[in-house]
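User: Sequence recovery, please. Input:
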């Protein structure tokens, strides 16, 4: 039976604080069980709640621990919506961060993206979507070339988008009291709604290519 998400306990932040800097192996092992119970398991519960709202959100992963200290200090998770197209969540001492991302593309996906950006209808649609997401407070980033790609005019009206080899829209959701309550689910769903048009554009136009 699924465990209902009730928020991250306040002690979760205490555990993450103890893992700051370069914690020794002994320190990590000392806090492993508490981190699993207080940090990682609530993320799983949150993603289960989110998945219950929309079948598109049912394919998700919550990261385990790795050698690098960063992975102990940040609890990540992704919801997969398409090939290399994801909603990402990350909990740390800074709070909860969300992003919509198309990244680490397969061979051929970048060409498909550029063709869709260059096309008048789909390209203008993406440009409007990105501007709308930016106005909602999301930072737009990605792997961006210094110059327009070969084969496209340097003065193309969407040259800034054409230079992207990945596309990420991200913003912090904060570290307020709601993080310790079920309201965090609503915050994540609101962010998912903000990102939906962008991610669905990518799902339509940046298919799996080899």
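Assistant: Recovered sequence (210 residues):
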């Amino acid at each position: 039976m699924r465990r209902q998400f009730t928020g991250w306990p306040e002690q979760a932040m205490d555990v993450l604080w103890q893992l700051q800097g370069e914690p020794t192996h002994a320190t990590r092992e000392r806090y492993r069980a508490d981190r699993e119970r207080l940090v990682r398991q609530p993320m799983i519960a949150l993603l289960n709640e989110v998945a219950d709202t929309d079948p598109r959100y049912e394919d998700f992963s919550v990261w385990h621990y790795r050698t690098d200290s960063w992975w102990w200090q940040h609890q990540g998770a992704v919801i997969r919506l398409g090939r290399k197209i994801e909603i990402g969540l990350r909990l740390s001492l800074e709070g909860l961060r969300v992003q919509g991302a198309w990244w680490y593309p397969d061979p051929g996906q970048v060409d498909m993206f550029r063709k869709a950006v260059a096309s008048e209808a789909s390209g203008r649609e993406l440009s409007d979507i990105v501007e709308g997401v930016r106005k909602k407070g999301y930072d737009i980033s990605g792997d961006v070339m210094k110059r327009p790609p070969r084969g496209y005019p340097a003065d193309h009206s969407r040259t800034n988008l054409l230079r992207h080899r990945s596309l990420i829209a991200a913003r912090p959701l904060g570290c307020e009291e709601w993080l310790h309550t079920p309201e965090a689910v609503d915050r994540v769903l609101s962010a998912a709604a903000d990102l939906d048009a962008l991610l669905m554009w990518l799902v339509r136009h940046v298919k799996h290519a080899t």
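The chain has a mean pLDDT of 94.
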